[in-house]
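Encode chain A's predicted structure.
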Amino acid sequence: MKNIWDSIVLFINQNGWKIVAMFATIIIGFLAIKIVCGSMKKMFKKRKVDSIVSSFVVNIIYVILIVILVVAVFDVINVSTAPFVAILGAAGLALALSLQDSLSNIAGGIIIIATKPFKKDDYISIDGTEGSVKTINMITTVLYTFDNKKVVIPNNTVAKSNILNYSSIPTRRLDLKFNVAYGTDIEFVKKVISELIKKDTRINEDPPSQVRLLEQAASSLTFILKVWVPTDLFWDIYFDMQEGIYNSLVKAKIEIPYNKLDVNLYNK
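Encoded structure for chain A:
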């Protein structure tokens, strides 16, 4: 036991300053990393950078600073960093080969951040998957669907896909179709629906709204309504106009066609 204790005391006497320097470097390094990352977050917030972008960039920088800190600790205790760099290089090569998909997802995340096809809370569609953007991590993009389901999509898939952003432009065109019976006065239908549009102050006046006959279908006249609305009110106006069109047609006594089946009975 005495020999062990003597060895410990000797080691401390010979390397005490290295141990102190190592712990001091680690503590100061982590504090410095915390300060740098915190300052970057404040800077991004002050410049009103999207939180998704700032979070992604800060995470990348945090990983880089941790690697630099590890190298600095080796240097302080006079341990050659050459083997560490060699091991890191070999490990990096092995990881690059085994984690090709993960690395491509990181690259995809960088592409998304650089091109900015969407920002947090934008409602988007990625190859048919729709939802509100919540976060972009180093490897994945997270969406919340309209019915509050969480969808996780690899960044590489997002970067390569066609992205439809419903929120990027403040106005959207709302198109609605409705049918009336043959023989109905076309101008009267247009007048009834135009009055409905004028009553809704949420609908934009510019570009002007349109109510036009779209086609002469097999058993009805098909009209189309086109109005420009604020993007954030799209679905509210959509449902209100659906109800309004029906009520306006009924009130004006305009026949709304529906499939009918005539059955004739013959008495022999």
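Residues 219 and 260 are 10 Å apart (CA to CA).
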